[in-house]
Amino acid sequence: MTQNGIVLVVCVSIIQDGKFLLIKENKRVAKNMWNFPSGRIEIGEDIFEAAHREVKEETGFEVKLTNTTGVYNFISSTDDQVILFHFIGELAGGSLTVDGEEIIDYAWVKITDFSKFDNQELRNANVLNQIVDNIIEEKYFDINAFHKQLK
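^ DNA mismatch repair protein MutT, sequence as received from the core. Prediction below:
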């Protein structure tokens, strides 16, 4: 969702066996860049619903959201202010599917190997590095810090 130059985004780090899933994006503003499954929250959409939808659309997986490392605020490469809600997720079903258009590759990466990526290969590298540091340091917060959308 974009309003007055502010973009609301959800982002999910799927962690399994000491590795997390990265996707390689081929989008207009992110050509051949690695990222966690993420995307904009749609108008009227609950942030949990948005997180589940984005993971399913970009990976084919269903996830259980377990924790959060928090909310990140930054200026994107398109000069939008981004408010990013980051979640930790566990696999709960589905199978990995890469559509070949917007998502062109994936990699299961050891958490400790993330630093081997060149920042030029990462979408919003400063934010991703901060998220990974929080994961390594296990700076997790209870997911109940976010309340479900009132209907």
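Residues 38 and 54 are 6 Å apart (CA to CA).
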